[in-house]
Amino acid sequence: MPEIFINGKPYQADPDQTVLQVCLANGIYVPYFCWHPHLSVVGNCRICMIEEEGRGVDIGCNMPVKAGMRVLTESEEVHAHRKAILQFITLNHPVDCGICDKAGECTLQDYHYEYNGAPSMSHEPKVTSTKFYDLSDRIVLDNERCILCSRCVRFTREVSKSNGLGIEERADVSLVRPSTDGSFKDDAYSDNVVDICPVGALLSRSFFYKSRVWYLTSTPSVCPGCERGCSIDIWHRKPEWFVQSLDPSENSAIARVTPRENPAVNGPWICNKGRDLARIFERKRALEPMLKGKPATPADALATARELLAAARHPVAVVSSWGSNEELDAFRRAFDAGLTVVAKHDHAPEPGEVVEDDVLIRADKNPNSARVRELFGNAAASIPAEADLVLVWGEGQAFSKIPPGAKVILLGSYLAPENGHADVFLPISIQTERDGHYTNFQGTVSGFSACFPKAPGVADAESLFAALAGSAP
Ligand code: SF4
Ligand code: SF4
Ligand code: FES
Q: Could you say which ligand is closest to the alpha carbon of residue 82?
């Protein structure tokens, strides 16, 4: 293992590391724009300058380690180069941070204050460019803010493989544009370029001018969009920034979803479906228990459910593959002995959705099918004809497949026509309102935490199972 000296101190390095990687691995700050740990090295932004003693400055992201080499990350020469690079990069930059969604997370802002801080030296008018270029119906490009680092281009060529983006023309009229040899619009991972763009050039339509990032906080979660179970952060308003006079539903809304790096599951990426979880979680909620479609008190609905279970001769329970490990355990404790269990996929692929690929997306659109298989390996695939009571947990059960005459207890979260057809309907909480874990198809267990308080009137499925336990014959 070669030993190198950074700012006079010895560090052990892997022979295939660059000096930038050794610095970052040891907590030594070096700025970078174009380098990304999961993309190829292009060395075009020149901000990562490091001085090798006796040899002068060069870019650290493409500087291989050599045993005994001595480098400086904060010398006068290094600082002078970084300042010059920033002056060059901001020469035609609009500096419209006040209206930029990236403000607060922009490395150009951070590095400018760290290494430059001076007004522009240029007396020439800035070169203007396209301000709102629709790269797709999801992403807008501001070419004036683009620093041509090419991260977005490399992402579409090396990770998502859509070859969706390229750079056309040269010098100060260079433009990132959709390329002719690929399709950015069809890239199921396109939104990752918004995260990796080091400036505010690539912007998500769903987050466009929606919030300043410092109003938001994030909660660790797991995407339920398929059995990959990608680790994500769900962003929502900080309590100290709750709106008082506007629509208060803003205070419990998902502002955006970003990947949370997890090498065991999704690396640093997620697919676009994971970004759109608000479409799943913010559907109209079912908040009232019902008896045959008529509102009932929770106590009456629960008592009726217990009576129906006790009276049934062939009760069946349909288990949800969107239930957490904890809920599935509670379900098994409550019903495994007395009921026939049927395994159900709550969600199927939607029209137009990428069903499966060799990046992340899996064909099974449910987060916890693996745990259902583990716990209910012998579960039936469909409801037996002799069933006289069916307890349905979650979505995706066609009521036409329930034997006619069977009583139905339904535990659901969203408004749906089936709710009114059930003999008993009990409203339950959703993932963003509780803590739990999912087991993905590889057996990796990932946890999620509550982002919002439970909607009024709903109970956790886990507590309902406990309350119903022992009612079955
Ligand atoms: S749009 Fe962003 S990621 Fe793409 S080249 Fe420009 S600065 Fe880099
Ligand atoms: S790959 Fe699956 S789990 Fe990951 S973000 Fe996409 S839908 Fe969600
Ligand atoms: S980070 Fe090294 S040249 Fe861009």
A: 3
Distance 42 CA to ligand 3 centre (A): 7
pLDDT exceeds 70 at position 66: yes
Q: Are strands 424-427 and 407-412 parallel, antiparallel or unpaired?
A: parallel
Collapsing DSSP to helix, strand or coil, 350 comes out as coil
pLDDT band (50, 70, 90) for residue 182: confident
Beta bridge partners of 4: 11
Q: Using a 6 Å cutoff on CB, does residue 201 contact ligand 1?
A: yes
Share of the chain above pLDDT 70, in %: 99
pTM above 0.90, yes or no: yes
Residues 6 or more apart in contact with residue 139 via CB below 8 angstroms? 184, 190, 191, 193, 194, 202, 203, 204, 205
Question: Could you give the CA distance from residue 300 to residue 305 in angstroms, rounded to a whole number?
Answer: 9
Contact yes or no for 35/48 (Cβ under 8 A): yes
Residue among 45, 89, 107, 154 to mutate when testing ligand 3 (max atoms within 8 A of CB):
45
Give the chain's domains with CATH numbers.
3-91 (3.10.20.740), 290-469 (3.40.50.740)
**Which of 219, 218, 211, 208 is CA-nearest to residue 243?**
211
For 21, the enclosing helix (H) or strand (E) is helix 19-25
* Substitution candidate for ligand 3 out of 19, 23, 33, 153 with most atoms within 8 A of CB: 33
Distances (CA, A) of 174 to 40, 50, 193, 438: 21, 27, 18, 46
Residue nearest to atom 8 of ligand 1 (CA): 149
